[in-house]
Each structure stands twice: as C-alpha cells, then as structure tokens.
C-alpha cells in the first residue's frame, strides 16, 4: 500500500512539472510549440520543416501539432486564446479573425522585430497587398504566408466543342460562351451540360467562391472597409449580384446539388475554385478530362489587372509565448526560400511573394507544374477579407441578399445593395 | 455523502442555466471579458425580424409534421396490430430509420430531393410529371423537410401506438360489433378516445422534437432558400457559434424555451382527455 502511494505520488509530481525549457550539458534548450493546419499535406510539410529546423537549431527545439479538431480553426484558436492554451506560433491564421485575436490580447506585434521590414522586402510582396494585412492600429500581427487565389476553372474540351478556343475574359464573353456551351444532348428537356455551377446554399463562406471574387475583380482590388470605415464599391457589388442573377435567370447555372462532382463527370464546364483543386482533379479525373485556369471575368469596361479573393492564411506569434525572439526566428525560417519551395512542392499552395515566376529557386517546380503558373501570376493581385470582427455576419448578410437577388431573382441588384448596406450598418451598430 | 444526482444536477443543469441567465444581460464573445449591457439583448430580440421568421418557420414545420406523423404512425400501427405473416419483420423495418444516424438520413434525402438529378424527380419525369423544386423553392422546402422528418421518426410513434392499441380491451370492440358498429365507427368511438393518452404523448414528443429542428436545415439547406427553412434552433446556433454572440444567443434561447413551454401547456389543455 505504501509502495503504491509513493509510486502514484512520484508519477503525480513528475506530471505536474511545468519545466519546459531544459538544460543539456551547458546549452539551455528553448522549446516552442507550433500549430499547423490539420490537412494531410500541411502536416507533412510542417513535420519536414520542423525536422530540418530542429537539426539546425539544437538550442531551439520546435514541437509541431496539427490544429486541434473543431468546427473551424478560428473557433479553435479563439477557445485557445480564452483558455490561454495557445501555441507559440500558428500558421493557419485567417485575416478575418485577426481583429478578434487582437481584441483578446492574443497576438504579438511582428513589426516590433528589428528585421521585420527586411524580411518582408525579401519576398517582394506588392505594397498594396502587404498593407491589406496591416491592422487598424498600424501594426502587423500576422506575417503573410500563403494564398489560394480563386480563379476560373474550365473544361478545355467542352469549350472547344462549343467553338471557344480561349476562355471568356469579360461578362459579355462569358454569357456568349454560356449560350454556346449549354446543351440538352438527347432532347429530353434536361440540361446535360451546364456552363457553370456554384453552391447555392446561403452559408456565409460560400460567397468566397462566387460573389466576393467577382466583387474584388470588378472593383480593381477593393474590399469593403478602408481604415475600419465601411466603403463598399456599390457599383462593383451590383455588378457581382447582376452577373450571377443573369447566370441563374438564363439557366446557365443550375440551382441544385449533384451526387457526384459535376466538373469531373463533364456535366459542368466552368467553376470558380483555387489551386487545391489540381491535386484533387489529378487524382480523380477521367483520362480524357482536359482542364485549365483563367482569371475571373471582369465587367466589359474594366481596365487593368484582374484581382481576386486569395483566401490568404498567415503566420502569427501568440502573446502567451515566453520566447518571442526564438519564435520570430522560427517564423523567418517558415517564410524562407527553401520553406516556400517545400510549400509549393508538398502542398501545391502558393507563398505570398511577388517573385514566384522570376526567382530561380522556383523555376523547376513551375516547369513541372505548368498549371500552377496561372495561380503564381495571380498572387500579386489577391485580396483577403477586412480585419473587422463582424465579417462572418456581414458575409451572412451578403449570402441572404445574393440568394434573394442572384439565385431567386426576387430583388433587383440595386435593392439588394441597399438592403445589404442597411444590414451591415445595423450589424456594426450592434457591435458597438 | 452528496447524492450523485445532486452533483450531476449542479454541474450539468444548475450551473449552465444560471450562467446562461447571467449571459442574457451581457455581451460576450468568449475571448474578451463579459460586458454588462442591461436589457439591450432584449431590445435587439424584439427588433429581430429574422428570429421571428425562424419561429414561424418552426411552427409551419410542426403544423405539417405533427398531423402527418400521427396519421401515418396510427395507420401503420393499425396494420401492424393485425395478425399477418412476418409481422415482426415489418415492425423492425419500420423502426429502422429511427436508429439510423440523423446526419446520414439527411444527406441521403438531400440527394433524393436534388432538383436536377435527384431520384424523386427522375421518377416523376419518367412518369410524365414535372420536376418539383423540393429544396430550392421557399414554398416547398419546409414541407419537404417535414416529410423527411416524418419518415425518419414514424417508427418510434408506431411502437407507441402499437402499445396503446394493445391496451384497448377487446370487449369494447366485441360489444360494438354486437351493436352493429362499422369499422369506421369503432375507430372513431373506441380506438381514438382510448388512444388519447398515447396521442397526447405523441403530440408532446413530436412538438418538443420539432422545436429542436436543426440537423435537417443545417445540412440540407443552410436555412434557405431565402430563410424559409431557417429554424429557431439553427438561428440560435448561428448566433452563438458562427458569430460568437453568446449573450444574444442565450437571450434567444430563454425566449424560445418559454414559447415551447407555453405551447406544450396549451396542447395538454386542449388535447388531453380523461379515459375511463
């Protein structure tokens, strides 16, 4: 009995030990915890990078852990901030949630590190894109890391068989293409080939694949807020509502869901999606499926580069860390050239940098993966979401107006826009 | 020694209820400290058209689901109460949907209801009928969900009605036969009145189950089209777990619970009868 008591007490005291940093000979080892995204490719990437780092830095050892399971990584991180169980570093920070993390005092200001500017400059990030990640208080709490630009995926053969040798670039070309693509092959009244498809459920994040990229493209890279003040480009929002309204009203897009992937089965010619689709298509496509990517269509009178929603995910250091400098050193490693190459090779996701196609380090990768070149060109012209705590509720309001106006045609785009602004102002008012 | 039930009650009932009640007067998003805002959540509630629409949607669901549930369950219970071959097998088959996961059933029916490619519309087209916009029309979406929910749960209520039917004394039917009563008269004058306690139970259970409508609109429609399938529970869930408005969600929850309580009391007052 006494022996069991001593054994249990010993185990208990050992488990209660909170000594994280240990000494080995004369070196004090700093231990950091790093959370990566929970998808298999990013776990593989994180493990490789951490193994490499740990070999190079015996005094700073990193332990990698996939983000704990939850409805979304934002909820998991919020819960971790509330419970003060955040890691030292996390590389799955959605810009839309950063303001909540800042409000909770959960993040470290990265621009306070002396070499922050030089590290950013090495990546040649376009100034306007970099500024979109600056918080309203003028500081950077997130380091731009990776992007998955939303672009137009199209079935090359279906377009060719409709007499189209190039993908449509503006709205008129798109609608003309739709007229030629839409087919009822056997005359039974059921459309066999749909020009396009988007998920019509009114879930707030679905709009990242239809309304929002088209709004960003039409507005030349504007989001909804400037310095925390609502400044929607109403003409561009109306353009986006109207584009999809025409698509649904003219029967170019179906209001349905499919049992199998309609793009893979050749039922749909065009979708709006990101580079993660390439790995999925390569694994599952039939032998004769030929596909490519093009920028989001823009209004007929639009001039300039085509912007899109980039779904950026960034890196942050949490304020619970006891080793800010060491954590920053690890962040610099995560955004180094060799780590960016690993991100491309293992995950087929793009680092946020402006020299992807010019930098020789990535040349071999893009030779082997020519489809990724379209996305690489797009990287300099992406936008994320505004750093406003109510972004999810704002996108929920957009979803409702999108549904009423574009899918069911019961409102005009102008009326939808008016309701949307009223609703957003109500949301912001309640948040005060 | 404290009773285990007392510990359970304090931890899982009393504490959460009390905390939720306190939340009603606060704004809280989990990560920042709770902010006292007095009655602002109630002011917001009474201006929230979407919440009241969600309550009406839930009532529409109940107005279709409960009568349908009772009619279908009673019909099949009567059939299964007769001495037929393989009666045990049929009873098991009808109960099967009850034990299948709600998520699985919802996903399957979502595919069957698909407007362009769903099985139901394909069958309708084969027989020369037009496709029905089951989940993509504000008019049809909630009735479609009610039909699916009835199919899912009817097995449980068949069992309850079967038990009720088997408790009706056979002598009552024998006396009625001697007096020349028809099958319909026996059903109306004997079966229904004697089944009243079971009917009340089915109505109350269906009501409580119906008020917690969540999985079906969450998976099938996201609350659309145009909020026509947005149930009160889904709306409260979105406020709490999508938008992190914990205080407001708690307010909605208490308000909705009060409505459920009142409805159940009214149901018992108007439906329950003494059975002699």
- Highest CATH level, the class of the largest domain in chain A: Alpha Beta
Query: SSE string of chain B, helix = H, strand = E?
Result: HEEHHHHHHHHHHHH
Instruction: Please report which band the strand proportion of chain A falls in: under 5%, 5-15%, 15-25%, 25-35%, 35-45% or over 45%.
Output: 5-15%
| Structural shape of chain B | globular
**Helical content of chain A (DSSP H or I, runs of 4+):** 40-55%
How is the main sheet of chain A built? 7 strands, mixed
Give the distance, in angstroms, between the N- and C-terminal Cα atoms of chain B. 45 Å
How would you sum up this structure, described in words?
The complex is a heterodimer of chains A (432) and B (276). Chain A is α/β, with parallel strands linked by helices. Chain A has 2 domains: 30-140 and 312-376, 3-Layer(aba) Sandwich (D-Maltodextrin-Binding Protein, domain 2); 151-309 and 386-431, 3-Layer(aba) Sandwich (D-Maltodextrin-Binding Protein, domain 2). Helix content of chain A is 43%, strand content 15%. Chain A has helices at 2-16, 40-56, 73-83, 95-103, 116-122, 127-131, 156-161, 171-181, 211-219, 234-249, 276-284, 324-334, 337-347, 363-368, 371-378, 391-407, 413-430, and strands at residues 22-24, 27-36, 60-66, 89-93, 143-147, 151-155, 194-196, 225-226, 229-230, 268-273, 291-294, 308-309, 313-317, 350-351, 382-383. In chain A, the strands form 4 sheets. In chain A, strands 1, 2, 3, 4, 5, 13 and 14 form a 7-stranded mixed β-sheet that branches. A 4-stranded mixed β-sheet of chain A has the order 7-10-6-11. In chain A, strands 8-9 form a two-stranded antiparallel sheet. In chain A, strand 1 and strand 2 form a beta hairpin. In chain A, helix 9 packs across helix 10 and helix 16 (391-407) runs antiparallel to helix 17. Chain A is globular, with a radius of gyration of 24 Å. Chain B is an all-alpha fold and 276 residues long. Chain B contains 13 helices and 2 strands, in the order H-E-E-H-H-H-H-H-H-H-H-H-H-H-H. A two-stranded antiparallel sheet of chain B has the order 1-2. The longest helix of chain B has 32 residues, at 49-80. The model of chain B has no long low-confidence stretch (mean pLDDT 90). Chains A and B meet through helix 3, helix 4 and helix 16 of A and helix 12 of B.
């Amino acid at each position: 009995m006494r022996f069991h008591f001593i054994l249990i007490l010993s185990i208990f005291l050992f488990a209660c030990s909170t000594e994280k940093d240990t000494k080995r000979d004369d070196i004090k080892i700093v231990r950091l915890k790093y959370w990566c995204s929970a998808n298999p490719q990013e776990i593989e990437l994180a493990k490789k990078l951490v193994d490499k780092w740990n070999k190079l830095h015996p005094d700073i050892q990193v332990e990698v852990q996939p983000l704990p399971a939850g409805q979304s990584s934002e909820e998991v991180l919020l819960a971790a901030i509330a419970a003060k169980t955040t890691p030292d570093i996390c590389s799955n920070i959605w810009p839309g949630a950063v303001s909540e993390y800042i409000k909770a005092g959960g993040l470290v200001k990265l621009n306070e590190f002396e070499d922050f500017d030089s590290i950013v400059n090495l990546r040649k990030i376009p100034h306007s894109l970099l500024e979109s990640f600056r918080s309203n208080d003028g500081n950077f709490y997130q380091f731009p890391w990776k992007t998955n630009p939303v672009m137009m995926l199209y079935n090359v053969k279906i377009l060719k068989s409709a007499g189209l040798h190039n993908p449509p670039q503006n709205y008129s070309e798109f609608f003309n293409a739709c007229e030629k693509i839409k087919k009822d092959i056997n005359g039974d009244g059921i459309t066999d080939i749909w020009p396009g498809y988007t998920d019509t459920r009114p879930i707030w994040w679905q709009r990242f694949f239809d309304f929002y990229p088209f709004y960003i493209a039409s507005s030349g890279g504007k989001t909804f807020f400037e310095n925390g003040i609502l400044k929607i480009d109403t003409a561009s929002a109306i353009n986006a509502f109207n584009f999809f309204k025409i698509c649904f009203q003219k029967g170019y897009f179906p209001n349905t869901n499919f049992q199998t992937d309609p793009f893979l089965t050749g039922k749909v010619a065009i979708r709006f999606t990101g580079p993660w689709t390439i790995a999925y298509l390569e694994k599952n496509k039939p032998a004769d499926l030929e596909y490519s990517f093009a920028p989001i269509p823009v209004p007929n009178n639009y001039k300039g580069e085509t912007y899109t929603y980039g779904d950026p995910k960034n890196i942050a250091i949490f304020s619970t860390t006891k080793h800010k400098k060491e954590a920053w050193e690890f962040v610099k490693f995560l955004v180094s050239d060799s780590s960016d190459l690993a991100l491309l090779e293992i995950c087929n996701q793009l680092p946020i940098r402006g020299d992807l196609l010019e930098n020789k380090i990535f040349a071999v990768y893009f030779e082997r993966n020519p489809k990724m070149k379209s996305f690489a060109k797009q990287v300099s012209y992406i936008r994320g979401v505004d750093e406003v705590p109510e972004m999810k509720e704002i996108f929920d309001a957009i979803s409702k107006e999108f549904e009423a106006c574009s899918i069911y045609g019961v409102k005009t785009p102008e009326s939808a826009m008016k309701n949307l602004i009223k609703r957003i102002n109500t949301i912001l008012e309640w948040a005060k | 020694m404290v009773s285990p039930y007392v510990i359970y009650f304090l931890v899982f009932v009393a504490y959460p209820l009390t905390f939720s009640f306190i939340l009603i007067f606060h704004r809280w998003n989990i990560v920042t400290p709770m902010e006292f805002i007095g009655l602002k959540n109630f002011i917001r509630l009474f201006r929230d058209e979407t919440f009241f629409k969600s309550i009406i949607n839930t009532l529409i669901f109940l107005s279709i689901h409960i009568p349908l549930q009772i009619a279908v369950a009673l019909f099949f219970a009567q059939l299964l109460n007769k001495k037929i071959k393989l009666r045990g097998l049929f009873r098991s088959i009808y109960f099967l949907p009850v034990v299948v996961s709600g998520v699985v059933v919802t996903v399957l029916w979502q595919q069957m209801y698909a407007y362009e490619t769903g099985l139901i519309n394909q069958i309708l087209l084969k027989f020369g009928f037009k496709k029905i916009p089951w989940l993509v029309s504000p008019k049809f979406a909630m009735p479609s969900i009610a039909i699916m929910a009835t199919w899912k749960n009817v097995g449980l209520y068949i069992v309850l009605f079967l038990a009720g039917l088997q408790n009706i004394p056979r002598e009552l039917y024998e006396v009625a036969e001697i007096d020349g009563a028809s099958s319909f008269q026996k059903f109306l004058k004997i079966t229904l009145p004697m089944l009243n306690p079971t009917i009340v139970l089915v109505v109350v259970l269906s009501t409580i189950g119906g008020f917690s409508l969540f999985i079906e609109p969450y998976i099938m429609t996201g609350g659309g089209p145009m909020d026509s399938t947005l149930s009160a529970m889904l709306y409260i869930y979105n406020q709490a777990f999508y938008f992190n408005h914990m205080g407001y969600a708690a307010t909605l929850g208490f308000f909705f619970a009060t409505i459920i309580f009142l409805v159940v009391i009214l149901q018992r007052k108007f439906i329950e009868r003494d059975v002699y």
